[in-house]
């Protein structure tokens, strides 16, 4: 096999994997695409029935809530996305316990918006939160009730 064919064979697998992590900035958000809220605090998980607590969906002080667009990714790629873009960037890395998945339709039905800023890749912010804490909690409760929890299996 010549050198060019060898390189082509090596990088053909690479390009298909990177295609899964393609730039979503200009992709329109579909109402049913999954949005993953990665959970780094086990207190955000109700262990009695493996559901998400409302605290997992409370916005930051800047009134943004960070999520990732996971459409088209397999489980391994979704966890890698979290590790590469969140965990590895922390000065004191935390444990990735799982993710809460919601859809844009539930976000929009709570009068929120989604900013697909793609910084880092596939990142989006849920925006337009009300300023009042009690209103934020009501919306966070709605999101948590609609969320499906995906627990991360410990690496062996």
Q: Would you kindly provide a written description of the structure presented here, covering whatever features stand out?
A:
There is one protein chain. The chain has four helices and eight strands. By secondary structure, it is α+β, with helices and mostly antiparallel strands. The chain has one domain. Strands 6-7-4-1-5-8 form a six-stranded antiparallel beta sheet. It has a two-stranded antiparallel sheet with strand order 2-3. Strand 6 and strand 7 (123-127) form a beta hairpin. The longest helix has 18 residues, at 3-20. The protein is globular.
Write the layout of secondary structure elements.
Elements: H1 3-20, E1 35-39, E2 45-46, E3 51-52, E4 65-69, H2 75-85, E5 98-102, H3 104-109, E6 113-115, E7 123-127, H4 133-146, E8 148-151
Antiparallel strand pairs: 1-4, 1-5, 2-3, 4-7, 5-8, 6-7
């Amino acid at each position: 096999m010549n050198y060019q064919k060898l390189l082509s064979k090596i990088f053909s697998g690479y390009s298909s994997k990177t295609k899964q992590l393609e730039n979503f900035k200009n992709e329109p958000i579909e109402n049913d695409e999954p949005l993953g809220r990665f959970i780094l605090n086990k207190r955000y998980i109700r262990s009695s029935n493996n559901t998400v607590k409302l605290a997992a969906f409370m916005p930051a002080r800047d009134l943004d809530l960070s999520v990732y667009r996971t459409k088209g990714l397999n489980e391994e790629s979704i966890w890698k996305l979290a590790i590469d873009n969140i965990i590895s960037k922390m000065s004191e890395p935390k444990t990735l316990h799982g993710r809460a998945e919601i859809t844009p339709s539930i976000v929009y039905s709570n009068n929120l918006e989604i900013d697909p800023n793609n910084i880092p890749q596939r990142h989006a912010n849920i925006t337009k939160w009300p300023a009042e804490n009690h209103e934020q909690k009501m919306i966070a409760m709605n999101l948590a009730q609609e969320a499906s929890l995906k627990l991360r299996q410990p690496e062996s």
